[in-house]
Specification:
This protein is α+β, with helices and mostly antiparallel strands. It has a domain of 64 residues. The chain is 37% helix and 33% strand. It has 2 helices and 4 strands, in the order βαββαβ. A 4-stranded antiparallel beta sheet has the order 2-3-1-4, covered by helices on one side. It is globular. 11% of the residues are buried.
Length: 104
């Protein structure tokens, strides 16, 4: 299992619109092969830059599914956000391999 994490910094003037778009974007991501779950997270601490912060964590079946996304779907999906919001946000991405899930 793999976690694909996208950390976002969004200008305050587009934040409400960005939030609405992001939910639809995450729902669309879940239609791709291997995507299981998406969580949109907001940190508790306030950002001192005046930007709003959000993190999206996508859970995928495996790294191969993520590679298919990068090859076949990522350019369009990333382009959608850029065409709508231009330089009003930035994104940093990280990939995690799940070592263990410990449940109650």
């Amino acid at each position: 299992m793999v976690i694909y994490e996208v950390n976002l910094a969004i200008d305050a003037d587009v934040y409400p619109e960005f939030q609405l778009w992001l939910k639809k974007h995450a729902e669309e991501m879940l239609q791709f092969p291997g995507f299981i779950k998406a969580s949109i997270l907001k940190p508790e601490e306030k950002d001192k830059t005046g930007q709003e912060k959000l993190t999206v964590q996508y859970q995928l079946e495996n790294r191969a599914a993520l590679e298919v996304y990068f090859t076949d779907f990522a350019p369009k999906m990333r382009g959608d956000g850029l065409s709508l919001f231009k330089d009003k946000f930035s994104a940093e991405r990280r990939i995690f391999e799940v070592q263990d899930n410990i449940l109650r």
